[in-house]
Amino acid sequence: MEKLIILEQDIINAICVYVARKKQVRPEEVEVELMYDDDYGFSAEVYVHDRKQVLITQNIIEALRLWLDEYLNLDPYIGLKLVLDEEEGIIAIGK
Fold this sequence. Notes:
Layout: E1 4-6, H1 8-23, E2 30-37, E3 41-48, E4 51-56, H2 57-71, E5 80-85, E6 89-94
Antiparallel strand pairs: 1-6, 2-3, 3-4, 5-6
Helix pairs in contact: 1-2
């Protein structure tokens, strides 16, 4: 099977859907900024109505699993790994 590559914008879209469900708002009301830190790894700052929430790597993977299952009809439990790519930014790779 070919490797699945999920680009940064799709990761952001997945997080918007994930947070919107949890906060009971529309995905368009969610703002996301992906981040990487050498000490803490991957995270996302999420804003809903000026309230900030920080998602850790595991939350991002959970959001991607929801998106893979419901929007792409793919196995949500493929091995996903977040990667910092020099050209593409933050991407996810699935096996």
